[in-house]
Amino acid sequence: xxxxxxxxxxxxxxxxxxxxxxxxxxxxxxxxxxxxxxxxxxxxxxxxxxxxxxxxxxxxxxxxxxxxxxxxxxxxxxxxxxxxxxxxxxxxxxxxxxxxxxxxxxxxxxxxxxxxxxxxxxxxxxxxxxxxxxxxxxxxxxxxxxxxxxxxxxxxxxxxxxxxxxxxxxxxxxxxxxxxxxxxxxxxxxxxxxxxxxxxxxxxxxxxxxxxxxxxxxxxxxxxxxxxxxxxxxxxxxxxxxxxxxxxxxxxxxxxxxxxxxxxxxxxxxxxxxxxxxxxxxxxxxxxxxxxxxxxxxxxxxxxxxxxxxxxxxxxxxxxxxxxxxxxxxxxxxxxxxxxxxxxxxxxxxxxxxxxxxxxxxxxxxxxxxxxxxxxxxxxxxxxxxxxxxxxxxxxxxxxxxxxxxxxxxxxxxxxxxxxxxxxxxxxxxxxxxxxxxxxxxxxxxxxxxxxxxxxxxxxxxxxxxxxxxxxxxxxxxxxxxxxxxxxxxxxxxxxxxxxxxxxxxxxxxxxxxxxxxxxxxxxxxxxxxxxxxxxxx
Length: 538
Prior knowledge:
By secondary structure, the chain is of the alpha+beta class. It has helices at residues 6-19, 27-37, 41-50, 88-97, 100-109, 117-126, 129-137, 139-144, 207-218, 245-255, 271-287, 320-337, 348-354, 364-370, 437-478, 490-494, 526-531, and strands at 159-166, 171-172, 184-190, 196-201, 221-223, 226-228, 234-237, 259-261, 318-319, 372-373, 379-380, 386-388, 391-394, 403-408, 415-419, 425-431, 504-506, 511-513. The strands form 5 sheets. Strands 10, 11, 12, 13, 14, 15 and 16 form a 7-stranded antiparallel β-sheet that branches. A hairpin with a 5-residue loop joins strand 3 and strand 4 (196-201). The N and C termini lie far apart (132 Å).
């Protein structure tokens, strides 16, 4: 015999009554229904006789959440007596006593209920968990049990989810430090494609750091052959103070972006960032030598690092550069190596590249304003460029020996922005290891122009000096006679005197050879003539 649920039974009765003619159900319909359900036709007839017709049942009582044990007609023995339900007064007693049995005793003692405790417990169990846990825990308990519709971003750069936390590692901040620190971690996730961006900070998160991170996310840059970047339509973040809500809000306002903080105690609405930051943190600490949460020993000590930072040997943890290299590997693995089921089996980067949505990149002037200044005041350009963070940065407009101020991205070291001491922007200097071909060609073209200009200067200078020598010799010869006395004849004084040819003796062949006849003088450029006009002969 087939077991039939109450829902199937009610549906069967409703369908047969709909097929009835003048209130009578045909035997053929009854037999077919009995055969399909695996019951006898008599069972079907009994269902039709015993199950009330909702359209004709005038004794049915509908009770809302404020109903009590007493039915509307006041007679508890009538067939219309309502099932006991929990009301607001009952929840108040439950919240005050924080115990179902104590609440039942309190309500019974004051005559507010007259049912058994079993009935009261069953009614309390039927209450919506949002109402029940709201009475016990307040709004967090209610919000935790609410139903929320799933929100799906329609395209990339629609929503950017941001979250902050402590990284579960210890690191040596720089080569001068003797005490390790626990860095801070910021994660930004594209809601549509789940693409992850991660940043590490040595100091607590502030508006300047977050603004630099958001600007780097929105800046146009190449990532494994895919152009990333674009201003999001909104920035979503947790509204709790421990999640640096005010910092994130201030940084987004500084960039002029729309913010969308989630309601309090609703961290699941920022689930994209919550899951991403846990994934990055766990993978990073899983390979770091200074990991904190990898278990304890029998004597309650950390397994791979000392319990206190002051007791940690700096040689047993990563340096800041090594930790950032590991973070890059982790982010690359997440974005390019993990297929996501919700994205159709594509990786995060593949889904981002397949999205045809136009990207609105942040303007260069806005990017420069959001970039981070350095602790050091000035940097001097040398023949190798500007040395910053173990890299050499070059640009066509840099002048060797000149002091500059610079700004840099939060994490990327592909380029820096260079400013003069007055704050004026000079150029974008690129790292020599990642310089684009266009910038390399521009630097080589500038060197070629400088060399060509120098060759012209050298040639013009040689011609000018040769002309000056000939003019000086001619003037000296015109003012002196062959016997060493001045010639009073003005015509002879102005006539040029051509010196005798000098015969050079070749000692090897013991013979003389005439000196080569000087050729005509080269024509001087006009700028040289103008410069030395007073010294040249007429």
